[in-house]
Amino acid sequence: MSALDTRDTVALVPAAGRGERLGPGAPKSLRHLGGEPLVVHAVRRLAAARSVAAVVVAAPPGAAETVRGLLAPVVSAAELVVVEGGDTRQASVAIALAAAPSHCDIVLVHDAARALAPPGLADEVAAAVRAGHPAVVPVLPVVDTVRQVGPDGVASSTVDREVLRLVQTPQGFARSVLAEAHATAATGGRKDVTDDAGLVERLGVPVHTVPGHASALKITRPFDLVVAHAVLAEESGVQRSASGMAGSRT
Ligand SMILES: Nc1ccn([C@@H]2O[C@H](COP(=O)(O)OP(=O)(O)OP(=O)(O)O)[C@@H](O)[C@H]2O)c(=O)n1
Ligand SMILES: C[C@](O)(CO)[C@H](O)COP(=O)(O)O
């Protein structure tokens, strides 16, 4: 058994957002990709990770029962808890953390909107926490030129992209550290932090990075759904050829 096979991890899935940038419709986590809601894709992949013992989902307001019904068939070995999320992503994570089973010392926080993040990414992040890093984020290099623009839209300068990274989820934490970060945030009142690593960093805890994965893209705007469809199609093509089906159809 490798260290990756240690089932000591709970995955929190904030899924209570409206998805306004995706356009009108159901809450984003319930919108379909390839015939299934985004939250089903996200949780199936987390539950398939070798380190994940439990999944806690923060569902859209009024949709906890619906989400529980959708997810029960896909979690298999992992324990499932569904709660209603809050008004912000941060509030939804805090609610999910409070409902997390106490036997897990490692916590992953993973957006339902990053529905196609592969199970291996969750295992790599959890392994880095297990190895002693209290906060771990998956990152990708920046491939475009980046320019900082002033409020007038005119004054601008190029930023050195070599020192920049795009941050994904799942992000991993020692449970006590994440709990302290959220407790501090709840009393601090600042709203300018966009992820859990940012909250933890305010405690003075270093944030370690591991390589991210292109499939963990955040489905934010309609174009992202187009890309996600392509990723899904590629995934099922790979699975078909691995099982020999592709060859047998010619
Ligand atoms: N009150 C909220 C807001 C967001 N989220 C979750 O946080 C993740 C990242 O948020 P984002 O992709 O920005 O989703 P939305 O907030 O739904 O998007 P938008 O800002 O376009 O409405 C998503 O899985 C979303 O469901 C949440 O659980 N609770
Ligand atoms: C947590 C996150 O996915 C890391 O990139 C991101 O910060 C979520 O941002 P949003 O403001 O909820 O779109």
TrEMBL record:
Reactions catalysed, as given in the entry:
2-C-methyl-D-erythritol 4-phosphate + CTP + H(+) = 4-CDP-2-C-methyl-D-erythritol + diphosphate
Has UniProt tagged this entry with the keyword Ribonucleoprotein? no
Q: Which Pfam families match?
A: IspD
Top-level class of the enzyme under EC nomenclature: transferase
Site Transition state stabilizer: which residues? 21, 28
Per UniProt, which keywords does this protein have? Isoprene biosynthesis, Nucleotidyltransferase, Transferase
Source organism superkingdom? Bacteria
Q: Report the pathway entry.
A: Isoprenoid biosynthesis; isopentenyl diphosphate biosynthesis via DXP pathway; isopentenyl diphosphate from 1-deoxy-D-xylulose 5-phosphate: step 2/6
Q: Where is this site: Positions MEP for the nucleophilic attack?
A: 161, 218
Checking Gene3D superfamilies in the record gives:
Spore Coat Polysaccharide Biosynthesis Protein SpsA, Chain A
Q: What is its EC number?
A: 2.7.7.60
Q: What residue range is the signal peptide?
A: none
One GO term in the molecular function aspect is: nucleotidyltransferase activity
Recorded family membership: Belongs to the IspD/TarI cytidylyltransferase family. IspD subfamily.
Q: What HAMAP family does the annotation carry?
A: IspD
Q: What does this protein do?
A: Catalyzes the formation of 4-diphosphocytidyl-2-C-methyl-D-erythritol from CTP and 2-C-methyl-D-erythritol 4-phosphate (MEP).
Name of the protein in its database record: 2-C-methyl-D-erythritol 4-phosphate cytidylyltransferase
Source gene?
ispD
